[in-house]
Structures are given as C-alpha cells and as structure tokens.
Amino acid sequence: MAPRKIIVAPSILACDFSRLGMEVERVTQAGADWIHCDVMDGHFVDNISFGPAFVEAASRHTPLPLDVHLMIEHPAHYLPRFLPLAGSITSHVEAIHDVSKTLAAVRTAGLLAGLAVSPPTPVELVKPFLGQFDILLIMTVNPGFGGQPFLDSMLEKVAEAASWRESGVFDFHIEVDGGINLKTAADAVRSGADLLVAGTSVFRAQDAAEEIRLLRNV
Ligand code: DX5
Ligand code: ZN
C-alpha cells in the first residue's frame, strides 16, 4: 500500500485565546492541513474549554476544515450546533450516546465521522463500529489538558488499529492526540498514525511553518 499522506492538525487549545483569529490565521499560513478544536464540558473531562460560538469565530479565520473533538458527556445533544462549522466531528466511545447513531448523523451531514478512545479504554471497544467511522482518534494523553507527556503505551493501540486497516476492508484515518512532537510523531507514524494533532509543539514553536513541515515529514 502507498504510504499515507500525513495530515497535521494544530490544536487551538494551545493558542492565545485573546488573539484567536490571528492565531488561526498564523497556523493556516504556516501550512496546517486541518484545525483541531477541543471542546470540553467539565463533565466528560475535568476542564471547560470552549463551545460552538468559539468554534464559529475560529472558522471565520480559515478556509481549512475544522476537526472538532468533542470531549463532552452528551455528544448527540450538541452535535447539531457543530455540524455546520466542521469538516470532521469526533465523539468518544466512552461518552453517553448511541455511538452508531452519532456517527451516522455526522456522515449524513456530509462530514467525516470520528470515534475517540481515551487511554484507559481498550481499543477493541471500537471494533464493533468498524465501517461506521472515517477517523479513529487514539488519545495519547488523558483528555482534558494540553501540554501533557505522550503515553508511549498507546502506540500498541495505534499498531492494532493499523492492522485492522491492513485487511483492506475498512479504511479510516488513525489520529493521535496529545503530547505530539517530532519524536513522538515519528513513533506514532511508524506504528500507523496518519493524522497528527499538535497543540503545544506547533503553537509554541519558534517557527510554526517549519514545525508543521517537519511533523508532516517525520
Ligand atoms: C487533550 C486535547 C488535545 C490537546 C493536545 O485533551 O484533546 O488535543 O490540545 O495538546 P498538546 O499537543 O499540547 O498535547
Ligand atoms: Zn483533541
């Protein structure tokens, strides 16, 4: 199989919120592929980040697809508010919802549907939903906060998911999120990841364009 094109999605959780528009424009010009938006409700994770109004504001500063990551307890309830804004929407397998129904609603709206697994969750839990998602997001830190160290043990999950993809029956992106830098990105890509979320490493880089270029070519 031809090597997959690596997609780099900077997470605006790490940007300067007081300059949201300029920050989104900065990483867009620096060559980002997608913009990752981490929505947290203070229930599913122990942090509150931002909601649809903030995502809408970000959308006005980039033509790039927004990759919305819902770390919220009731994704189905809030889904309609994000559908018009996003290119892809990912909900967690651990959240309270009918997973198949949420994935189908995202696809019906013409978006890519993602399913996420947190570090304590075995990746096998998403297996019944193969064929129903376009993105499998493997969290490489415990969700809730940016700037945490990458959990190396998650690489096994990436490799396991990549083996499902090798059968050729199911095709989906393998997204890694949390603690991604040049070293951990290389490990993740070697294990089968093709979609890299990077908050701190891109937004705090001296040269965001160079960082994105290097991440894409790890
Ligand atoms: C964590 C979020 C991540 C986070 C990544 O809950 O899902 O997207 O912003 O940030 P870094 O790259 O700083 O680990
Ligand atoms: Zn995320």
Q: Summarize this, please?
A:
The chain has 218 residues and is of the alpha/beta class.
List keywords for this structure.
binds D-xylitol-5-phosphate, single chain, TIM Barrel, binds zinc ion, globular, alpha/beta, 218 residues
| Tally of domains | 1
Question: Could you describe the largest sheet, including whether it forms a barrel?
Answer: 8 strands, parallel
Please name the fourth-level CATH homologous superfamily: Aldolase class I
Distance between the termini: 18 Å
CATH fold label:
TIM Barrel
The radius of gyration computed from the alpha-carbon positions, rounded to a whole number of angstroms, is: 16 Å
Number of helices: 8
Structural class: alpha/beta
The average pLDDT is: 97
The CATH architecture classification is Alpha-Beta Barrel
Ligand inventory: D-xylitol-5-phosphate, zinc ion
Number of strand segments: 8
Could you give the order of the helices and strands?
EHEHEHEHEEHEHEHH
Biggest sheet: strand arrangement: 1-8-7-6-5-4-3-2
Q: What best-fitting shape do the alpha-carbon axes yield?
A: globular
Describe the structure.
With 218 residues, this protein is α/β, with parallel strands linked by helices. The chain has a single domain (7-216), classed as TIM Barrel, CATH 3.20.20.70. It has helices at residues 20-29, 52-59, 75-82, 99-108, 155-166, 182-191, 200-203, 208-216; strands at 7-10, 35-40, 66-71, 88-92, 112-117, 135-139, 173-177, 195-198. Helix 3 links the parallel strand 3 and strand 4. The longest helix has 12 residues, at 155-166. It is globular, with a radius of gyration of 16 Å. The two termini are 18 Å apart. Residues 11, 13-14, 36, 38, 69, 141, 143-144, 146-148, 177-180, 197-201 line the site of D-xylitol-5-phosphate (DX5).
